[in-house]
Amino acid sequence: xxxxxxxxxxxxxxxxxxxxxxxxxxxxxxxxxxxxxxxxxxxxxxxxxxxxxxxxxxxxxxxxxxxxxxxxxxxxxxxxxxxxxxxxxxxxxxxxxxxxxxxxxxxxxxxxxxxxxxxxxxxxxxxxxxxxxxxxxxxxxxxxxxxxxxxxxxxxxxxxxxxxxxxxxxxxxxxxxxxxxxxxxxxxxxxxxxxxxxxxxxxxxxxxxxxxxxxxxxxxxxxxxxxxxxxxxxxxxxxxxxxxxxxxxxxxxxxxxxxxxxxxxxxxxxxxxxxxxxxxxxxxxxxxxxxxxxxxxxxxxxxxxxxxxxxxxxxxxxxxxxxxxxxxxxxxxxxxxxxxxxxxxxxxxxxxxxxxxx
Length: 358
Hints:
Blueprint: E1 2-6, E2 9-18, E3 22-24, H1 36-45, E4 50-52, H2 60-75, E5 84-88, H3 99-107, E6 114-118, H4 124-138, E7 143-151, E8 169-178, E9 185-191, E10 199-200, E11 218-219, E12 225-226, E13 232-233, H5 235-257, E14 266-269, H6 274-284, H7 294-299, H8 306-314, H9 316-320, E15 326-333, E16 337-344, E17 350-355
Parallel strand pairs: 2-17, 5-6, 5-7, 14-15
Antiparallel strand pairs: 1-9, 2-8, 3-4, 7-8, 9-16, 10-13, 11-12, 15-16
């Protein structure tokens, strides 16, 4: 397990941008064969309710750009002061060039600003924070703009009830910079690539390019419809992975940081679904009041944007009041990969959730 501690690095701003188009599982009864009881059971146990999704012309880069513009404006930061930009996404605008280069130009950042993409999903925000903290702590950059966002809804088949009701979209922007008064930040990061095929879009890359064959939609034994160009998820394996690895990862990080769970104000997990979050919290014996879970019910599973969305949507008030500043962030999923961070948010000056507008 990769563990590390960074001193003198703070998260000073965070903005999440969500699309305005909303879908409700109540309008998708046909996915469940008209079985109202099954639908209500899923809503109660898994937390499937509403989700925000982009239209055909909006991408993760668009959402992240709007979040970044709002963050830079609210922080009164000059563009020349951004030394590096990291873009975390698995739904880039192009296979080449990277989203970071595209957004660098659209935002008008300095030519001296290093920019790169990170291809990670559910754990991506924490991995991005780790990279940003590394750059600032090493002196390679004074300020890092971290953009994390995905539009997974565009990868799912609308008739695949295993994933279609789950995934929403979002983009985020975080500002990470030097500070001499912030508490140390602790990170742990893990990967199990043997499970790469448990959450995957099989076709569309160099291994299996798109073709007429990969576009054919087939029905699986569970009654779900998808093509090889759509997202596939082995739900049982992802659930088992999540509730097995996540509690261990969180416990190990707390032990490494020598911090008791009671001293953490909030545990912000990747918003996979309420059933998974509840199981993780139960295994860690956490107070459910410390575990935000409303985001997934309002916006869906937003992949790399889910943790910042939960912070901005559910914790902006306590963070602004400085009543709750010690947060444990933890993402898990596609890869398989997972990552946790214990961060002090006491110097967070911007924390907003905004709607995307053209």
